Amino acid sequence: MRELMYTGRWTTEWREAKDPTVDGPGEAIVAPVAATTCDVDSQILAGHGPIPAPFALGHECVARVIDVADDVSVVEPGQLAVVPWSISCGTCDQCRAGHTAHCTSVPDMAMYGTPIGGEWGGLLSDLVKVPYADAMLVPLPHGLDPIAMASASDNWTLAWRLVAPHLRRLPGASVLVMARGSIGLYVCDIARALGASEVVYVSPNEEHRALAARYGARTLAETQPIPKGFDLAVEATGRVDQLAVAAQSLKPEGFCESAGNHFRPGELPLLNMYLNSMSLRIARDNVRPNIPAALDLAASGTVTPRDVVSDVFGWDEIPERLPERHAKPVFVRDLT
């Protein structure tokens, strides 16, 4: 099989590797059929990631199940499933508490696409081994488009988690979104669908602002004054200075959610944040427990995540197309 290797700044290539096989209980082999880049992959490709090249890239996909161990019951060969970005067993104390990104059965930070917590490969590969398949894999509901849901492994579900629980707690909340990639656009779509009273989207990208406007958001460039008095601010820029702006946009007792991945240091206005009694969460996302609810919202017809997909390319085109810096490309094969 081939796996896509990040080999240097804006450079990737296929590398031949041994086909994975089911050789233990609970395992599955899957073949990605619709895979995409996470927002953080753009930072990695640009040379800003925390791990030096080379390594297998990719941690967002919908895959077709190829083979399963005898004890796997959640999926069967031929079925389409979402593959979560982080590796989790589903049975340890952290997993049972919903903290699947902190599973204690595997090394800390065990994930696809970046070899921090071990070598698990990447989801931009012809074949992928999935341990703990019953705990990890989520069958794709019938009728959902694999291209639209390629990001359910991380960014789509993360966007749901950043905003949906807050709108459940505080119906009609006002939402500020500061973003540079797909996460913020997904947040705009989800916030509108779930009844936010106001969504303001801030980005330097004119095309992204245009899409956010179609989602019903009021849009601003980063150079424009940012209003204050929001119930919720979502920061998905990877820049600490923008997190600081988001944190100061809240009404008293407001909440700021950050998608994290701040690879460079910076300062926060801690005194102002304290005086405003705000809450800030910067969280490595426990995506697996939230995938079913995020898929349910996608299946409701009230959201259009497919609109965020910038381009659709064939599987063999990945090394050629990634250096072209497409915003949210999806690479497909064998969808029928």
UniProtKB/TrEMBL annotation:
Q: Taking every annotated instance into account, which residue ranges of this chain make up the domain Alcohol dehydrogenase-like N-terminal?
A: 24-139
Q: Where is the Alcohol dehydrogenase-like C-terminal domain?
A: 183-298
Ranges annotated as spanning the membrane: none
Which of UniProt's keywords are assigned here? Metal-binding, Zinc
Q: Does the keyword Zinc apply?
A: yes
Listed SUPFAM superfamilies = GroES-like, NAD(P)-binding Rossmann-fold domains
Q: Which Pfam families match?
A: ADH_N, ADH_zinc_N
Fetch the InterPro entries from UniProt.
Answer: ADH-like_C, ADH-like_N, GroES-like_sf, NAD(P)-bd_dom_sf
- Co-factor requirement: Zn(2+)
Domain of life (superkingdom): Bacteria
**Keyword Transferase attributed:** no
This chain's protein is named Alcohol dehydrogenase catalytic domain-containing protein
Q: Name the source organism.
A: Gordonia hydrophobica
